[in-house]
Amino acid sequence: MFSVLGSTILLFGAFSKAPLKRYGQIANWSITGLTFGLLFQTSMAVTGTTPERIGFVMPMSALMVNALLGVSMLMLVGRWMIRRMLQNT
User: Using CA atoms, how far apart are residues 31 and 3, in angstroms rounded to an integer?
Assistant: First the structure.
């Protein structure tokens, strides 16, 4: 959830000229959450063990976790593309 929230903030922040360092902890939490999520999903896929619910604060199904990670990744890629287009103009 932190990754999706942070990625949303970073995506909307891409329309300003502010550097990524300006967002500080928000950017760190977003990228760290995405990295750990992908790492844990990969480890579950390699070992072939998937629990019924993932998470202890907000238990979710594995499909929901994968969807949230995908949305977060798409928002970060979208941010990168927007920043790149704005720099070229």
Answer: 7
Per-residue pLDDT in tens (0 to 9) along the chain, 89 residues: 777 888 888 888 888 777 767 777 888 888 888 888 889 888 988 998 888 888 788 888 888 988 988 998 899 889 889 888 888 87
Q: How far, CA to CA in Å, does 49 sit from each of 57, 60, 67?
A: 20, 16, 18
Residue listed under structure tokens 């967002």: 23
Please give the Cα distance from 81 to 67 (Å, whole number).
21
Cα-based angle 46, 50, 56 (whole degrees, multiple of 5): 125
